[in-house]
Amino acid sequence: PQITTYDIPLNDTSSAGLGITLKGKTSIVDGQSMDMGIFIKSVLTGGAASRDNRLRPNDQILVI
């Protein structure tokens, strides 16, 4: 899969912060639950991510 890195400034949003909700994904492989990572559940209106307009639901978060 393609990996794209975004730098999203937070300093221009007073109290809204990054403005995303997160979810964890798991998968069952051979009867074992495997952690698939942390993903964006939603982008909240008014937050830095919404204003930046590049993050989307189901994008995986690799580094904060």
From TrEMBL:
Residue span(s) of domain PDZ: 7-64
GO molecular function, one term: phosphatidylinositol binding
GO process terms (BP): cell adhesion; establishment of cell polarity; establishment of centrosome localization; establishment or maintenance of epithelial cell apical/basal polarity; intracellular protein localization; microtubule cytoskeleton organization
Classification via PROSITE patterns: PDZ
Any one Pfam family match given in the protein's UniProt record, by short name: PDZ
GO annotations of cellular component type: adherens junction; apical junction complex; apical plasma membrane; cell cortex
Name of the protein this chain belongs to: PDZ domain-containing protein
